[in-house]
Amino acid sequence: MKTNVKSLIRMILALALAFIMTLTLFACTEYKPNDGELPEGYVPEPSGKIKLNYYIAATEADKRSVNDWVAAFQNKYRDVTVVAELSNTNNIVNQIASKTCGDVFFLWEIDVYNYAAVQNVLMPLDSYIEAYEIDLSNIFNAIKDMGNVNGKTYMVMRDYNHLVFRYNRDIITSASLEDPIKLESEGTWTWDTFKEYCARLTTQEEDADVPTVGCSMRLGYGPVFIPFLEGWGGRWYDKENKRVNFISDSKVLEGVKEMISLVQSNVCKYNAAGGGGSIKETADQRSFGSYNDYNQVVFADIEFPSFGAVGKNYEEKGIDWDVVSLPAFPTHKVGTGATGFAVFNGTRNPEAAAALCLSLYTEEGQRAYNGQEGGSVPNVRSLADASFWRVPYADREIDPENGKNYFAFVSFPEADTYGRAECVVPPEIATIVNTYMATVVPDVVNGSKTVDDVLKKLEDEANQKWDALYND
To answer: What is the Cβ-side half-sphere exposure of residue 255, based on CA atoms within 13 angstroms?
Structure first.
C-alpha cells in the first residue's frame, strides 16, 4: 500500500512538474511586440541565434546571394549564428499569423505598409540605425524611403532597381539612327526623341523581310505606368487630403493619354505581362502580337534581374544589343522598386536581427549580397561605379566595343519615383488604382471605353474607399 502511495505521489509530482514546464515554455514563446526603442547612448552587442526566412530562392544563384550575405555578416559578428531557411514557397503569411516566422524575413516593397501599419508585426529600426551608425545619406533616396511607413523605417531594401530599356542595336544601325546611348550621354534622349525613333523603326510588313516595331512596353505594370502619371508634372495622389487625382489633375490625364497615344500610333507592342487585356487587330490598329521580342522589337523595358537572361537570348540569336536609360519625360521620372528584409517585432533577439537587416545598408553587406550572378544593383551610392556587380557581361567603360551600358542601371537617381502604388497609398486604394490602370490602355484603344470615363470611375471609387477608411 505504501508503495502505491509513493508511486501516486511521484506521478502527481511528475505531472505537476510537466504542467509547470509547459506554462514556462508558453510564457517564453508568448508573442510580445518589441517597439524597437533603445536607451539613449546604448551600444548594442549582437550575439545569440536568429532565424532568417527567404522564400524566393528559386535558383542556386539566389541562394548564393543570401548565403554570402549571411557569411559576411557572421564574419563580422562572430557571436551571432544565423539559421537561414531558404525556399521557393511563400508561406510567410501563415508563419506571421502563427508567430512562427523568422526573426528576419524577406518582403516585397508592396508588403511593407500592410505589415507595418495594418498588421503591426514589424519592428521599427530607427534606433538601431543610429546605434549601428548607418549612413542613410549613402543610400539612394527612393530605396531608403521605400521602407518607411508613417515616418519610421521598417524595411531594409536589398538592392536598387529601376527600369531601363534593352534594345536591338542592329535594327537601329540599319535605320542609320544615332545610338541612343550617345543621345543619353548628351542629354538629348527625351520622350519626344524616343517617339520619333519608334516611328522610324516600325516597318510595314509588306516593306520588309523581317518587319519591326519600335517598342514593347508593359503599360499596365506599376513601375511603367506610374512615371507616366507624374511625367507631365501631375500629382496622382494626395496623402494629406487622402485623395487620388486622375481626371481632376489635367497633367495626370495627359500622362495617361500619352500611353494610349503610343499604342494608337501603331509603334508600340502592348505587353500584357504587367496587366490584363490585349490589343485587337483591326484595319486601323496593329497589335504586333506575333512579333518576336528580340528579332523584331527594338526597345523593351526591363529590370536588372532579367538582364542576364535577356542578353543570353540576344546573343544566341547573334544580335548586337545593349541597354539604355528610359527617355526623359518633360518631368523626368523613372519607375523604381526593390525588395528587402524586415524584423519581426516578436523577435527575442532584436539586436542581432536589426544588425543583420541593416548590414544591407553598408558597403560590405552590398558587396556580399550583390557581388555575383543572382545579385543585383547595390543600393549604396558609393558603389554605383564599382565593378563587382557588373555581371555577367563586359562593362562598356572597359570594353567600348563589346561591353554593356551598366551606367543605365544607376543613371538619374534624382528622377526615381516609387514604382508601386502600395508604397504611397493604403493597400485598398492601391488595389483600385492597379485594377483600372492594368487595362486602361487596351480598353481605350479597343474602343470599349473612353479614357475620361475610366479615370473618373477610378478616381470616384478610390476616393470613396479612402473616405470610408478615414471615417472608420
So the answer is: 28
The amino acid at 218: R
The per-residue pLDDT for range 303-350, each reduced to its tens digit, is: 999 999 999 999 999 999 999 999 999 999 999 999 999 999 999 999
Q: Which of 152, 153, 155, 149 is nearest to 118 (CA)?
A: 149
pTM of the model: 0.90
| Residues forming beta bridges with residue 316, ordered by sequence position | none
* Domain 48-160+338-383: which CATH number of 3.40.190.10, 3.30.540.10, 3.40.630.30, 3.20.20.140: 3.40.190.10
Q: Where are the domains of the chain?
A: 48-160+338-383, 163-336+417-471
What does the pLDDT read at residue 3? 46
Among the listed residues 104, 14, 10, 17, the one whose alpha carbon sits nearest the alpha carbon of residue 53: 104
Which residues are CB-neighbours of 141 under 8 A, at least 6 positions away?
413, 416
Which residue in this structure is represented by grid cell 516597318? Answer: 203
Segment 349-383, tens digit of pLDDT = 999 999 999 999 999 999 999 987 778 999 999 99
Burial class (CB in 10 A: 0-12, 13-18, 19+), 202: buried
CATH architecture type of domain 163-336+417-471 = 3-Layer(aba) Sandwich (3.40)
- Mean of pLDDT over the chain: 92
Does this chain's domain 48-160+338-383 share its CATH topology with 163-336+417-471?
Answer: yes
Question: Does the pLDDT at position 451 exceed 70?
Answer: yes
> CA 9, CA 6: separation in Å to the nearest integer?
5
- Dist. CA 380–CA 469, nearest whole Å: 37
Helix axes 451-471, 250-264, angle to 10 degrees: 140
- Could you tell me which residues come within 8 angstroms of residue 227 by beta carbon, excluding any fewer than 6 positions away? 326, 329, 333, 334, 335, 417
- pLDDT tens digits along 143-166: 999 999 989 999 999 999 999 999
Closest CA relative to residue 211, chosen from 270, 284, 266: 266
